[in-house]
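Entry 14. Structure prediction run on the chain below.
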Amino acid sequence: MTRLEERIRIGIVGLGWVGQEVARAALEDPRVTLVGIADADPNKADRDLGELIGEGRLGIPVERDVEAMLARARPEVAVVTTTSDVEALGPTLEACVAVGAHVVTTCENLADADMATSQLEPGFDERVRDAGVVVLATGVNPGFAMDRLPVMLAQATRNIRRIRVTRVVDAASRRAQLQSKVGVGMTPHAFTEAIKSGEIGHAGLSASLRLIAKGLGIQLEKTSEAFSPVLAASPTTSVLGTVPSGRVRGIYQIARGYRNGREVITLELTMALDEEHPRDTIDIVGEPPLHFEGELPGDDCTVATVLSAISVVVTMPPGLRTVLDVPLEQPEEPAPMYDSTPPRHRDTTQLPLRLDGAESQRRAKRAARRRPTLAATDEVVTALPVPAEGDAVASSVLPASRTTVPKGSASGGEAASKKKAASKKKAAAKKGAAAEASVAEGAEGAASDGDASAADVKAPTKGASKKTTSKKKSASKKKSASKKKSASKKKSASKKSASKKRASKKKSASKKKPASKKKSASKKSASKKKSASKKKTPAKKSSPAPAASSPAKKKPRKRTPKKSAKRGPASADVPTPPSGDAPS
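Output returned:
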């Protein structure tokens, strides 16, 4: 069954506290439309619903007869909030099924459908299936806190050995009907008698126990349930009146399920006045062990679970169902009138509609659900458009140096060849200028030296110019190396002289030693010069040399005038090492 295109039409049977709260919430919920109300109480029948819930006149009368309301309003879902007794609820359920209305009820004892079937008329489930409707009991407890939520958490662990669920409720913050149901104000003896007769006590705890066992696939051998009063240590107050010390302020209830002689499921419920730490705790002993703790306000959560169940029962398979059969319930969307509430993020884009407020959201949601889904094997491939052959390419992807040729002009190849020729001419002109500049520099150097012949400064060819530039580079490298060596030697000499001066002040007898050292150092430097000159002369034998000087002395003489012209005459105290020597 698919979801309805418009709002779901609902009718409410029973205007107790829960029924009134559901009616008040339904007036603001964009998922539903309230079309009928029924209650047999003469103080409520034949009155306007707005007068009973404090919303002013709404034009929705409260009818006495349930069947008359169902026949007139034809609701798609009937919300039944009358009793916790399954047998007393049977006739109302039959009337709803007869008109083809789904049923969402807060009857606690109907939470376990298998156990409730025995209390209904025979063949009830078959009649429900034949009518194509769903009958579901829900709420916060039973229906969520102590059954459905533990089953959902158990999906995150394995090898489960035990489950323990604890719920503590402060009855002082709850309605008068609940305080009366847990025996507030009774004496201990009256409490015991009321438990035996079934007048008090939380209905549905054993149903939650069986739901957990069913959800986990555990076959229980036996179950047990026990009740005990929670007595007031000091006087306290409630909506029912003053509770003196020693009287009942609440109830403690525990249900156990056994398998193989061992307790595997334990449910503990405490509902009493002035409980300091209301909480919901779930402990699952498995691999890994899980622990959950929070607080679920009973009354408000019950209203929310009822309204959420309305939107899913219309999609479920027909029959008598439990909360374990319910898929994830659709929560209420934010009301459009509350601008401060941020909208939920959605995977799909919501297009603006011209409909008003909640109706537009409803229709957009329905349209999104009707959108076809892909099979598990389908693959979504986004194909990018490929330009056809000959199509123009976007100018943003072209290199900066590439230009387009307008129609009627020369072809792109001719233009490119012309540009290449022009660039070659420019490069040749630049090279010629560089060669002339190098020749001029060589002529100036030869004139300053006075040793080079006139043939050396003739205009060289291209290959000769390259050789001269390479020679100049090597000469400059040698100069820098010689400068570094001389600087390092000067530093070392200055350090040695300083140390010698200190030594001479302390020891006057050692004055002759530095002189001897100087003589030996000068002898060593002279020997180094001779060895260096000997090494260089055989390397230059192949090259022709003028008769005036040797090749080893020619290059240093050419460089020294340039150095002296720029930096002044060289000092005669420090000998300049020949170029190409390795550092000592």
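The longest strand covers residues 158-170.
Filed with the rest of this week's runs.
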